[in-house]
Structure formats: structure tokens, C-alpha cells
Amino acid sequence: MLKNLQTGPSLRIGVLGGGQLGLMMIQSAINLDLRVEVMDPSNQAPCARLTHRFVQGDLNNVESVYQFGKDLDVVTIEIEHVSVEGLRKLEQSGVKVVPKPDHIAIIQDKGLQKQFFKDNQIPTSDFILIESGGDISSLGLPIVQKLRTGGYDGRGVQILKTTNDILERGFVEASVLEKAVDIDKELGVIVARNASGKTSIFPVVESVFDPKVNLVSSLISPANIDVDTAAKAQKLALSVVEAMDFEGLMAVELFLDADGNLLVNEVAPRTHNSGHHTIEANRTSQFDQHLRAVVGIPFGDVSLLHNAAGMMNLLGSADAFGAPVYDGLSEALSMPGVHPHLYGKSEVKPYRKMGHITVTGSDMNFVQEKLLKLRDSLCVNGSKKK
Ligand SMILES: Nc1ncnc2c1ncn2[C@@H]1O[C@H](COP(=O)(O)OP(=O)(O)O)[C@@H](O)[C@H]1O
Ligand SMILES: [Mg+2]
After folding, report:
1. Residue 148 lies in a domain
2. Which residue segment(s) compose the domain that 29 sits in?
3. Fewer CB within 10 Å, N side or C side of the chain?
């Protein structure tokens, strides 16, 4: 049983994963004197030098997850690729686990996730599940093939336009095959839900993808959509957490198609890249809200602090290796409304997420102008080239 609304050293919170999401969670935790302990496979992880206790360990190993968490009050995640068995074992031994291991198990597998949407009448693109290759053209072409497990950040997802593509590039592994949606906009809604069923929904954001790297490269908040569509997107996100009886914070990715329909693409059971701007742009950030859900304390107001906000990831340049060099950072620092976040990673690699920049302003033109300027002037190079 979780101790009643406590902060400070007597409440022990464990986080599986010590990357940038964990780092920003620690920033939030400090304000409430919540003390976070972290496990990550790398002792170079951004959280390693910032946490009350750092354990280097395999997140996918039952025993290491169990040993890390067994004396803690509550364990949460900043990445969903963790040992669900380890989390179940923790739960059985009386440790509170948020989100629930069964929900993480569904979300880890893109196939189970799609099936969950379908079984719960949550609109999503048509799909079939396949075990391996074979005839994968029954949905027509083009199709999007996604590995059920093992993909991350755009890896493991591919569009197949022709029969030849299927033959040459089709994954011969358990996959989801989805009808390709004619996407007008990619939207995101973050929603938090606590053990007593209270919910908090963030305003809708819009992602802009860079097709070259298939990682979200910039995002605007609020999304440029009408109020009805925004309300529908929020309602859909809420319906996912309600259908699952989810506890914690969930990021819901949606497509608005060319006919104006909203479809749920996928969800993440944790804080998300699409919510980084909430640190400066909303009254309560996704990291604050996640911790509040985990600890069981009242949610904060998530309304917007600025008329417009934008966020771009700072990715390593195509040929960057070695120690990171942030070219153009001093210009960015001197621009009004520009808020850099560097994740403290000791090594840069091509397209590695090294940080992000949030821009806030009184109108979207100002924000987009600044984002374009930053895109041209700022880059993360390395001390070595390949
Ligand atoms: N059914 C689909 N139709 C069209 N584009 C899609 C479809 N599914 C995914 N995509 C595109 O691929 C991107 C990555 O897919 P996603 O399922 O979000 O996987 P991940 O984020 O794990 O890489 C999406 O953001 C979208 O741009
Ligand atoms: Mg995605």
C-alpha cells in the first residue's frame, strides 16, 4: 500500500529507463521533493549523475527489474521496453507499479495494441496481423508494415507501395499490416489518469515529420484544427485510457485523414516527445502530471500559458560522432521565447536525440518563424567525423 501523500526520502520512487524522459521527470520531481531512483543499461545514461540511486541493469531481465524495485514504494517507466514479468513480480510482492504491467504488455506489442483498439471500438486504420511473410496484399496497396515488437522511433515501420516492395523489403516477421491512411495531420493528445479514475487531458498538438529521419522533428501547440476536431481528438484519447482502465500518463497519437476522420494510430504508456513543450507552454507539464499520477496526488491545470508554442528535436548531424558540439547555441539562447534543453548525452551519433528546443510566443507565425530560423542556424556536430 502506498504511503499517504508523502514526499521526501521516505517515499521511494523507481524509474525504469534513464534517458531524457527520466531526466525531465527528475526536474519535476525536485519541485515536490520526490526522490527518484533509476535503472538503465548504460552508466552513461542522462539520469545516471542526477538521481538518488542509479543502478546499471538490463531493463528486460526479470531478476534485475525485480531486484531494482523490490524495496521501493512505487515503480514507473520512461520506456515501455521493459520486463513485464519483472514488474508483475514486483506487484505480487506489494510494490505499486504504474502503469500496470498488463497494460505495458499490450502496448509493447503493436499487434495487441491494434487488436485492443478494434475490440473496444476505438477508430483505427484497418489492419491484419501476420506471423511472417507470405501473401500480405489482402488490404490492397499501399500498406504500412510494422513489426509487432522490437521497433522504436520509426525503426520497424515501413510503407510498401508495390508488389515488388513487398517481395524485396517486406519484413518476414510477426507484423501488423495496416491500410495506409491518407493523412492530413498527425495529432497528439496526452492524457493522465490516476487510481481513482480522475483524468486530465492536455490540449491537442500537431506533429510535423521529417521523412528523411522518420523522427518527429517539430511540433506545434495548439494544433491548427477547429475546436470540434480538437474536442473529438481529446475525447478519443480519453476513451483509450477509460477502455483500458489505465493508470498513469498516456500519449495518444492520432491521424486526421483527408476526409476529416480521426483514427488512433498508437499509444505510449509514458511521457512522450510530443509533450516536451508542456514544460514551458502549459501550467503543468507532462512530467509533473506523470509523477502526480504515479504518486497519487492531485493533478495540476494543464491549460496553455502562451497563445502558441513549438518544439523541435535537436538531432545529431548526419556525420557527427564523439563529444557533442552545439553549433549556433549562443544565437538560440539570445532569442526571446526560445528555451533550449540539452540532455547531457556524452556522445553524439547521427540523428541521435541530443536535446530539444521549445519556442513560446504570442502567435503561431512568431513561433514558426523562430523554428525555421533555429532549423537553419542550430546543429549538433561532434568532436569526430566518421
Ligand atoms: N496506417 C498508416 N498510414 C499512413 N502512415 C502511417 C500509418 N501508420 C504509421 N504511419 C506513419 O509512420 C509513422 C510511424 O508509425 P508509428 O506507428 O507511429 O510507429 P513508431 O512511432 O513506433 O515509429 C507515423 O507517425 C506515420 O507518419
Ligand atoms: Mg509513433
Report:
1. yes
2. 12-97
3. N
Give the DSSP per-residue string, 177-239. Answer: EEEPP-EEEEEEEEEEE-TT--EEEPPPEEEEEETTTTEEEEEEES-SS-HHHHHHHHHHHHH
Q: 86 and 25: one domain?
A: yes
My answer on whether 44 and 68 are in the same domain is: yes
Q: How many domains does one find in the chain? A: 3
**Residue listed under C-alpha cell 549523475:** 49
- For residue 345, the domain's CATH number is 3.30.470.20
Mean pLDDT of 363-380: 92
The CA distance from 1 to 209, in Å, is 43
Q: How far apart are CA 370 and CA 339, in angstroms?
A: 11
Are 248 and 137 within one domain? no
| pTM score, whole prediction | 0.95
Distance (Å, whole) CA 208 – CA 372 = 12
- Give the least confident one: 156-160, 212-216, 249-253, 302-306: 212-216
The residue whose CA has the least distance to atom 23 of ligand 1 is: 154
How many percent of the chain have pLDDT more than 90?
85
Give, as one character, the DSSP assignment of residue 132.
S
Report the separation in Å between the CA atom of 104 and the middle of ligand 1, taken as the mean of its atom positions.
19
In a domain? residue 110: no
User: Does pLDDT of 217 surpass 80?
Assistant: no
The residue whose CB lies within 8 Å of the most ligand 1 atoms, and thus the one to mutate among 205, 252, 265, 351, is 265
pLDDT tens digits for 100-122? 999 999 999 999 999 999 999 99
Residues 263 and 330 in one domain: yes
Q: Name the β-bridge partners of 228.
A: none
Residue 50, CA atoms < 13 Å, CB-side half-sphere = 23
Same domain, 161 and 211: no
Q: What CA–CA distance (Å, rounded) separates 220 from 101?
A: 32
Decide: 215 in ligand 1 pocket, CB within 6 A: no
- CATH number for the domain harbouring residue 174: 3.30.1490.20
